[in-house]
Structures are given as structure tokens and as C-alpha cells.
Amino acid sequence: MGMTHIVDRRLNGKNKSAVNRERFLRRYRQHIKKAVADAVQRRSITDIERGESVSIPSRDIQEPVFHHGRGGRREVVHPGNREYVAGDSIPRPQGGGAGGGGGQASPDGEGMDEFAFQITQEEFLDFLFDDLELPNLARKKLKDTETFKYVRAGYSTQGVPARLDVVRSLRGAHARRLSLGGARRRKIRDLEQQLAELKASPQEQDPAFSVEDQIEALEEEILRLKNNLRRIPFIDDIDLRFRQHQKQPQPATSAVMFCLMDVSGSMTQMHKDIAKRFFILLYLFLKKNYKKIDVVFIRHHTSAKEVDEEEFFYSRETGGTIVSSALKLMKKIVDARYPPSEWNIYAAQASDGDNWNDDSPICGKLLKNGILPLVQYFAYVEITPQDHQMLWYEYEKVMAEASNSFAMQQIADASEIYPVFRQLFERKAA
Amino acid sequence: MSESIEQPPKTPPSKPAAREPISTGSEWTFDLIARYDEEIAKCAKEFGLDTYPNQVEVISAEQMMDAYSSVGMPVGYNHWSFGKQFLNTAKSYQRGQMGLAYEIVINSNPCIAYLMEENTLPMQALVIAHACYGHNSFFKGNYLFRTWTDASAIIDYLVFARNYVAQCEERHGVDAVEEILDSCHALMNYGVDRYKRPAPISAAEEQRRQKEREEYLQRQLNDLWRTIPRSQDGDEEKNRRKLRYPEEPHENLLYFIEKNAPLLETWQREIIRIVRKIAQYFYPQRQTQVMNEGWASFWHYTLLNRLYEKGLVTDGFMMEFLQSHTAVIYQPPFNSPWYSGINPYTLGFSIYTDLRRICENPTDEDRAWFPDFAGTDWVETLHFAMKNFKDESFIQQFLSPKVMRDLKLFAIEDDDQADAYKVTAIHDEPGYRQLREKLARQYNLSYREPNIQVWNVDLRGDRSLTLRHVPIDRIPLAEDTEEVLRHTHRLWGFDVHLESVDDGKLVQEFHCPPRDMDEERDT
């Protein structure tokens, strides 16, 4: 015919919408940043492998146009009339607004009040680091995925149709059909057996309850159950399984990261949030370089304790501060579980600088002689806008002697996290 | 996957010829697509479908999402709202809420239709029949499209627009351009000429005349605004004072602003022009949804059944096709949780299908209602219906009592001055005509959108722009009217007023910047 021209466009770029998507994110930066900040609160610091779902109130992103409001008189034609005749009146639905029968007049969609969408992991990190003032180079290094490989990572109930695993889905459907139908099938078997017995056995003398009646009742019941069975759908949305893939880095060996934090009364939630972001940054950096990372959380006030992440960040304590307790515990854990010959050891300590004065010299000594020889790197951040105390000056002495594996910095707000971190970076990058 | 399939196909396919199917599997290849297209084209020719040449583009699911989010423009300028659209599309696609098979076909010459690679062969054939022969012949035949759009020029024009907007972004910054576009989009539905035919758009022409226009426009503007402070003398002056500018209300707000706003820079005027040209291009589509989708559905159904009669497709093929077809034309009843108004595919398909029946097997009722074409040649009659109407008049002309009965149509009146809804007409003898009229009116754009026009510009005073809204049936303007007015204000550059005048009485008013409550109105 020659009239039709068929073109294969699949190899043309697919990210035609990338610019528009980026424009959208740019316009709603503030909303997204807030969502990311909230997500960081919720998430574990090792949980940075995925993007995030962001919701924006629909009214904030609506594009206004002139349209009709509520009120006045309108007449709408609908399909599917059953019982109405002309002249009938139908009570106005209560509370449902003027929508009700006359839905045509709301051009603003289905009345959702949230606009939800996904941002990627990369975008998530971008927003997360946004006010940390990371230079682009460092950003890139953190997110770079040059040495990743894809590994299968199980199945999920959501996904794009192309990733649908037919066998899995059908297996699930089969299991669901069995579990929904099993009891009924058993019942049918029982009833059929009874029926057979009834039919086989000769008439018994029970005039009030004749065999025919019983047979009929049984047959009815069997039919009902079979109809019931037939109504179980062959495949249902909940059966669908999609293959999932995950990126995994392929670099060298293992590392352990110690997070040490003062949780005495003087540390507020704001201090802890800054600390958390610092820890995330460190974790990301390590993740890039090591295949396996353990994270150990040690918190302390007057005594130290190894805890899980939840307790680490979100439980509150009161009372004084003895920093050395945490250092001692860390050393003990290293000796017991993380021989430096097999593990790259990193530690980050966050504190508001408060310490019992007599303890600070002990800390300096412990650090210099007990810990620094074992670790790749030890970073100390002091989160306070105020003047330094004893601990800082003790650590400065350590710094003078062991600047290769030790860094310290004062942080007053989030924007100062990065400079501290950079010291660590530059050293590794060089 | 979650779409429910109801009713069996209406007419069983007639007895097939000896079966020699084009293919038996469900995997497609380029050769097979070409073969199917060739056979479908032959069938289309039997029925006299006149089309532009087709360009079928095979694309991936991701590319389909891109295409969806650019609201049917194969090339578009950049704007965040398209990004929003994209995020929405991606979300519902990933949740499996949405198939992507049908709707993308571009009113251009050649007519571009997208096939998604994930589709099975029967689906590809369905889309070819639907888009390449259904929609395509509609674009080429319907009078609105013939009058208002120029299929051969649209792609070039869109490329021109995209480049122009990109240049502006480079020169004036993304934010400045975004602002103007936001404001234009808010008024986009009021950027069309409803009655007067505009000059066809063409990229070459646009570029050639752009320069010329700049100069001319500036001269015009100067004239308009210069006369103001100068004229001070007596009678003549009094007469002018009474005249409004424009003398007649002006329906195309964007056009009026482009030509008359005092402070806009040239590039801003050009962007307004681009947006309204694109609005004009889509205007026929907004007025022919029922007709267009109904036509395409009627033809995919008819053409593929013809293939089956010729023995070119298998039973399995037909099963899959009919399943998709029934899903597409399914109309949930008004009390179903899935109900969201009348499905234009269903309504259009039903009307055309019944029209064919009326031509081929008319009843007494049909002869009474449709004396002009009961018993005439159906192909000719259907073409006549497709070519010469828009949704409103199409329904008014061709909606038959049988379709009203089949769909069980009924009308509900919702009057805020009454205590309850009232059923005003149903699918019975006294109701047919009313019902048809009411449904037709429902598709009249000027009933669906508020009637707002430019009323006056205060040439001698504060240069404010006054718009006038004429309500129908006392329906007021919605809450976000003030938002839209803010956009209008951004474009106009001086105060903007909007008065809602019902039967000579002022019932609602909006001002931007907002007016203090106690301040007195001075006109």
C-alpha cells in the first residue's frame, strides 16, 4: 500500500520528560525538602538505598482556570436508570457537598487532596545534602555507582508490568485459590460421600425425614458450594509478584563504623539530628568503599552502652557525662569482635562538648594510645555554638600528634557538617 | 488488569470464510505489523475511509509515558506542569492502574500513531484500526478540524514554539518565562476564537512575519495609548467617554491581551501567541470527544470483524480483541463506584452503531424519528454524520430513542433553591426529546465553561481591564477565580476587574489587586 510508514523509535531517548520533571521538582523544592527531612527522621542511617515518596497538598500545585462553582441550577444526564420516572424527587445527599448526583461540575478531578510521587535515591540524596553545601564533586562521589552490579533482590507486590514474574504470580494465585477453596472442597467431598451412602443404602423408616428430601438437600448444598468455589477469581491483583533488582557495590572488604554519641540531658533533639546527618554522610562514604559495613551504636552519659539505632537516636537520658566510658566500651568491642587485621574501623563521635573535667585527660590518653592505633579514622564533632570546654582542648592535643587519623570540628548548624566531613574525604581521595 | 469486563459483544461476527490467518501467535514483529496494516487498510478502503498517510511509531512503555505527559504534543516546550503530568502518569502506570495502549495519535499529516512494544499482536492491530484508520479519517474529514487546524504544519509549528521558548529562557531566565507560561495556561481555554476562522499556523510563516509583527504591533499599541492624554476638548471627548473599548465584548482573552496589554515585552507577546495557537489547535478535539472516540471505536470494531469474516484472524485473536473492546466501551451505571460520568467511547460507539442499524434495518420508530436517513446507505450516512457536526449537534441530530433506552439515560436537576434533586426526564416517549436536548447541551463548551469576555479597558483613567461574566442558570464562578485573575493581572500589568452580571444585575465581583471592603466603587 505504501501509505503507512512504520518506524522503530524504541532506541530514541526515553527521558524526554526529564527536563519537565526536573522543572517540577525545582518549583516544589521546599515541599520536597521538608518531606526528605521528615523521611530522614524515620529512616535508619543505613537505609539510603531507595528514593522516597513525596506528597504535596493538591491545592498547592493546582493550575487555576475559570470554572463553575457550586450553586445555581444544573441538569445532568446519567446512565443506568432503574426505578426513576420523570417528576421523582431524590433527597439531596447529606454532607457530601454539592457533588452528589451532579458530578460533572467538578473539573478538578477525583477530589484527591494529596499529589504523591516518587523521587529517586539520587534525588533523595540531593535534597538531603542540599543545605550541607556539599561541593558537586563530593556529591557525585557519594552517589557514583561505577562499580555496582545488579543482583536479584526478591519480589515485590508492586512494579512495572515488564517485571511481572508470571510463575510466581500464578503460584500465589494457586495458593490463594487452595486456601480460599480448601475448606469448601473438603465439605463437598464429605457431602458427596454422604450422598453416595444415602443413595446406596435402602430405604429407612423415618417418615418425617425421607431419603429423597435428604438427597435433595444435600445436592442443593453441594451445588451452592460449587458455585461458591467458582466465584474465587483465577488470578487477583494481590497475587501479582514483580521481580526486584538491587544495586550492589563490588569493592574491597569490610568496614565497621562506630557511632558514639553523648545522650546526656544537655543534648537536644536538634543536636541529635545534626549528628544523625553526619553519621549518614559517613555511612554513605563507607558504603562506597566497602562491601560490608557493620554499624555499632554506643551511647553514653555517665556510663556507656551498646544500643540499637532507634534507642541511639530517640531515647533521652538525664544526668552527667563521662566520655571515657564510651571510648572504653568501643575498645572492648573492637577487641572482642573486630580485629583490625580484618576490619577497617571508622568512628565518629558527636557530643555537645560537655564532660566531667577530671575525665577529659583520660579521654585524650585513651584515644591516643588505645584507639587511634586501631582505626582508620576517628572524627569528632562538637555540636555547640558555645565556647569550648576541657574535652576540646584535650582532643586538640591528640590532633597535634595524630592528624592523619583524627579530625575534629565544631558545628553550630547543619551547614557546617560538610567541612568536617571533607577532611575525611580529601584524605581518602588523595 | 483490574478493568471489569461485562456484557458479551453485541453482534456475533458473521460466518467466517475459510480460515487462513495472517498469524497465529501473539508476539508481534515489524513484518506482521506491516501485514496487518495492509489488510486493515484494504478493509478501510472497502468502507470508503479517507485518511492521511500513516506513520506508525513503535515505542517503549517509558516513551509512552513521555508522550502521555506532553498532552498529545509530539514536541513541546518545557514547563513544570508537564513534569507534574509525567509524575502522575508514571505513578499510575507503575501501580498497574492504567493500561497505556490506546489514545495517542496526533492530528498531523502524516498522522502519527504510537504502538507500545509491550502490546500483543491483537492489541497492535486494534490500535492500528482505531488510530490509523478511525481517528485519522476523523481528523481528515470532520469540518472543525478542517477549518481550524492545519495538519501539515503543526509539527513544524511546535518545533518553532519549543525553540522560541528555549531561546527566551536563555535570554530572560527560566523563572521569567515560567511565570508568563503559568499565566497563559490559566487563560488557555479563553485563548480561542470560537466563531471566526483564524489564519492557519505555519512555522515558516511565523518566522517570516515575526519581525514585521513586532514593529507593527508596537506602532498600534502606541496609537492606542497615545490618544489618551491628548484629547481634552468638549463634545467629541464626551462621546468617546461613553464608548467602551473594545466596542463589542471580546471572547479571546489571550488575543486581546497579546494585542493590547500596555507593558508587555515583545517576547512575552510572542509566548502568549504560542499558547493561544496551541489552544486553538486543540479546540476541535475538545468539542468532538464523543464523535471522535465513538468513530474510532466503531471502526476498530467493524474493521477487525471484517478481518475475521475474511478469515484473516483466528478465534483467539478475536477473543482477545473483543475483551479489550468491551472494556473500552463499558459504561458503569450512575450508582456504581466506578461511575465518573458518561463514557464518551460508549456514547459515541452506541450512536454510530445504532445509526448503522437505522440505515440497514429501520423500525417504524426509526422512520418516524429519522425520516431522512432510515433505510439509506449506512456508510454514506455515517460519513455525513462524522463530517458535519460537533458533539453538541451530533447528539442533537443522531441520538436515537433506542440508544437512550439501551443506556437507560435520565436527567437530574440540581437546583440550589430546591430541597431535593428532581428527575426531569427519562428514557420514555415523553422524555426522549428533552433528554436529547439536555445531553446535547451538556457537550456545549460554552455551557460547560463560564462565559467570560473582555468588557472594557479604562483607556483614559487607570488603564484597568474589566472582564464580564454572564452566568447561565445562576451558576457562580468557582473559588479559584481570584487566582486566575492574579494571572490575568500579571499579563495585563494594571488592575483587573471581573464582574458577574446576571440579567443586568451585578451578582459577583472580583478584583486584582483585591479591593478593600469599604472602598467605594467609582463606576
UniProtKB/TrEMBL annotation, chain A:
List compositional bias (Gly residues) regions by residue number.
94-104
Spell out the residue ranges making up region: Disordered.
83-110
Query: Which InterPro entries does the UniProt entry name for this protein?
Result: UPF0229 (IPR006698)
Give the transmembrane region(s): none
Q: Cross-referenced Pfam families, in alphabetical order?
A: DUF444 (PF04285)
- What is the similarity comment for this entry? Belongs to the UPF0229 family.
Q: Which NCBIfam families match?
A: PRK05325.1-2, PRK05325.1-3
Q: What is this protein called?
A: UPF0229 protein SAMN04487963_3342
Automatic annotation (TrEMBL), chain B:
SpoVR protein-like N-terminal domain span: 27-446
Region: Disordered; residue ranges are 1-22
Give the highest taxon in the source lineage: Bacteria
Sequence ranges assigned to domain SpoVR-like C-terminal in this UniProt record: 450-503
Q: Which InterPro entries match?
A: Spore_V_R, SpoVR-like_C, SpoVR_N, Ycgb-like
Q: One Pfam family name from the record?
A: SpoVR_C
Output the NCBIfam families linked to this UniProt entry.
PRK11767.1
What protein am I looking at? Stage V sporulation protein R
> Mind giving the lineage of the organism this protein is from?
Bacteria, Pseudomonadati, Pseudomonadota, Gammaproteobacteria, Pseudomonadales
